[in-house]
Amino acid sequence: xxxxxxxEEAAPVNWTVLMLGFAGMVIGQFMAILDIQIVAASLSQIxxxxxxxxxxISWIQTAYLIPEVVMIxxxxxxxxxxxxxxxxxxxxxxxxxxSVAVGLSSSIEMMIFFRAIQGFVGGAMIPxxxxxxxxxxxxxxxxxxxxxxxxIVTLAPTIGPTLGGHLTEWLSWxxxxxxxxxxxxxxxxxxxxxxxxxxxDMSLAKGFDWIGLALMAVFLMCLQFVLxxxxxxxxxxxxxxxxxxxxxxxxxxxxxxxxxxxSNPIVELRAFTNRNFVVGVIMTFIVGAAxxxxxxxxxxxxxxxxDYSAAExxxxxxVSGLSMFAVGPFVGRLVRKVDARILMFTGFMxxxxxxxxxxxxxGDWGFWEFAGVQAMRGxxxxxxxxxxxxxxxxxxxxxxxxxxxxxxxxxxxVGGAMGLALLNTSLTENxxxxxxxxTSAVDQTNTQMRQMIDAMSQRFADSVDPHASALKAVYGMFxxxxxxxxxGDAFALLAVACAFAAFVTLLSRPAKPGGAxxxxxxx
Length: 523
Fold this sequence. Notes:
The chain has 20 helices and no strands. It is mostly helical. Helix 12 packs antiparallel against helix 13. The longest helix has 41 residues, at 401-441. It is globular, with a radius of gyration of 25 Å. It starts with a helix and ends in a 19-residue tail after the last helix. Mean pLDDT is 79; it is low at 1-10 and 515-523.
């Protein structure tokens, strides 16, 4: 028996088959992550195309994210049950069919329905790639796989709005979804032909924990809804948000208890007894906030304060993607030689530095002012993500990797959702606070203010009420300045979170560079 295992471990790797299969899975992962943000710059065009209201149109993104968070941890169990290849093929096929259905939608109700199914079935393509990288690749090559995944995870949400804006401008908003068909067919071929990495264990279907599945679905979907919609609905002032928060507070602990006591749990939580895994999940959570938060704040500032078009926003944001591409290969080499904790600390501090510089943002900031901020943030997030993947997964036993990869990806998505919720709340509250401070500091009895209002009244002399038009213009100037100051506060908040993550890295156990050490027992 021992000789057979030794021969299996010593068997040469067929790199052509491995790389083609892995490439197919990576393309599928890119599609699934890209589709979260690809509609961001085209919501107004979609709204006009299907006759939706302003409140309804935001559900095109929310409807995708809420079911997705259920599939991400569930995919680990399904991979152990059916095998990675079958799960990925089913996920990709369902994703393609629903993408076409969303693109053909003629009403907001139809679009939200198919968008929810698209998010649910597509969610399985995200964590399974992480599991393959740490099980199918030899230890000395896992860093390379991590670099590839890091580029995909960071670039997809960064270029999503840019690509979506250009597709809508060149073709129509329906091509935001039809575009998935061509790479999706390639994914089906590559995964179906080359990605037979493991076999499923159908015996796991016996005693399936339906109660655990129901608890997990209710807990995660309610949590995602609260995080996505809370800031828009004034949090607990809204009865539905308050009710769902209570549901989260009840179902969360019950789900954890069920997972720890069930003989065949939906999600294996014992990985959290590994200290490196816990630290890695915390860091991945903050990486999600930094990644999605930075990709949210800068485009919003450029469109809201500077009135940039989708194409201009995309041109400005490209610096972040370029810095990630430039840093990725170097980080792959460094992880093989340097303690990953040092790299994580460095990466988070670089991201914090970039965000901290942006706290001085003014209404005149554009491409060149944001270039340094984006370069530091992009490079820092890339370094932190690749190094944290090594620390998180390297000390786990092989049988925990599939479930653990789902939990890691879930933490990044929830971190992103929570980061966006906090940033939205920060922008709303601080904009109002700065507006009060500005208007109270300067009133109409001030000589300079009266002179400015008089000058503007003369400029609006052709209007029905020149004085009212002048007051409205002054109010707009104050509102723009208050909004700009609120963005500075939000950038500072993100910087503090990244700096906190940098010091959390010091709590992890030292790991040998390169990921070559064998998985140890759970600590």
